């Protein structure tokens, strides 16, 4: 589906909001700059999509980063799978399996408030962005090479507080075509503080794709919608974090659950354990 209507709609929405905006004081765009970097040692059990013939567990190291600099709000991470190149009975990243050892997500957003010098906030919406997202793995031309383009906002949600929300159009770099949309949201909510200033947080995200072309004739058949949701419970100190995450999948990456020659499982639940060091 070569469709860019969503981007046109996004532009019209931003223009309409701008017409009712008033000037904001943005004389120093870098006054609230910040950045962060951490390394997460992770273990995944049951991650989807899963090939029942090869297992569903693996370890990986994740370099996670983010921050704000002027008009740019950034989040991203790089994952390295199966650090010791081990072969295990239940491992889905075994040497020789043909799977990529790398995955990267890079998500810069550009503040329309800061670019225009106007305050576009209204109701629960705190700031408006032109949002992009890039997903890459280590396979050239065959693996994950997708980009997302659209609009986003920081939204004040009851109890959760500031929640990042984005609506994108998906451009498939392998097939060189637009194919559907994605809604994403992410949150980080500290909810219990200890006397030593460490705390517990509820954190997670949603990625939901829709409006895509189905392909029942593909080697791995695809559907028109699907996605995942992550619920994490983490303990944080200034330097360390420990966490558990529960992740639900429904036809993730638009792969039809149990269909095709490989009969990949793309629907179900998985578990994540993590230990973090913060820089």
Molecular shape: globular
Q: Which regions contain 5 or more consecutive residues with pLDDT less than 50?
A: 2-24
**Residues in β-strands, percent:** over 45%
Q: What integer is the average pLDDT?
A: 89
Strand tally: 14
Number of helices: 2
* Intertermini distance: 43 Å
Tell me the structural class: mainly beta
Short description:
The protein has 279 residues and is mainly beta. 7% of the residues lie in helices and 53% in strands.
Strand and helix map with partners:
Elements: H1 5-19, E1 22-23, E2 34-45, E3 57-69, E4 72-81, E5 102-111, H2 112-116, E6 118-119, E7 125-137, E8 145-157, E9 161-172, E10 177-193, E11 199-210, E12 226-236, E13 240-250, E14 268-278
Descriptive account of the structure:
Helix content is 7%, strand content 53%. The protein is built from two helices and 14 strands. It has a twelve-stranded antiparallel barrel with strand order 2-3-4-5-7-8-9-10-11-12-13-14. Strands 1-6 form a two-stranded antiparallel sheet. It is globular. The chain starts with a helix and ends with a strand.
Tags for this entry?
single chain, 12-stranded antiparallel beta barrel, 279 residues, mainly beta
């Amino acid at each position: 589906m070569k469709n860019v209507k969503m981007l046109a709609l996004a532009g019209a929405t931003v223009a309409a909001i701008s017409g009712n905006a008033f000037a904001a004081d943005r004389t120093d765009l870098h006054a609230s700059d910040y950045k962060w970097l951490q390394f997460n040692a992770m273990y995944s059990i049951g991650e989807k999509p899963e090939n029942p013939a090869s297992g569903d567990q693996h370890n990986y190291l994740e370099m996670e980063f983010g921050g704000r600099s002027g008009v740019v709000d950034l989040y991203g991470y790089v994952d390295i799978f199966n650090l010791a190149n081990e072969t295990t009975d239940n491992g889905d990243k075994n040497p020789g399996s043909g799977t990529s050892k790398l995955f990267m997500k890079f998500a810069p957003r550009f503040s329309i408030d800061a670019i225009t010098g106007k305050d576009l906030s209204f109701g629960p919406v705190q700031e408006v962005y032109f949002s992009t997202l890039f997903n890459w793995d280590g396979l050239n031309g065959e693996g994950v090479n997708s980009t997302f383009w659209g609009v986003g906002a920081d939204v004040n949600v009851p109890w959760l507080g500031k929640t990042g929300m984005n609506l994108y159009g998906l451009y498939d770099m392998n097939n060189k075509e637009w194919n559907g949309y994605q809604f994403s949201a992410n949150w980080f909510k500290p909810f219990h503080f200890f006397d030593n200033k460490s705390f517990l947080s509820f954190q997670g995200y949603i990625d939901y794709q829709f409006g895509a072309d189905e392909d029942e004739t593909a080697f791995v058949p695809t559907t028109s919608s699907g996605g995942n949701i992550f619920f994490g419970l983490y303990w944080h100190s200034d330097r360390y974090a420990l966490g558990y995450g529960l992740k639900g999948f429904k036809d993730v990456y638009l792969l039809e659950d149990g269909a095709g020659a490989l009969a990949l499982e793309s629907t179900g639940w998985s578990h994540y354990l993590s230990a973090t060091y913060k820089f």
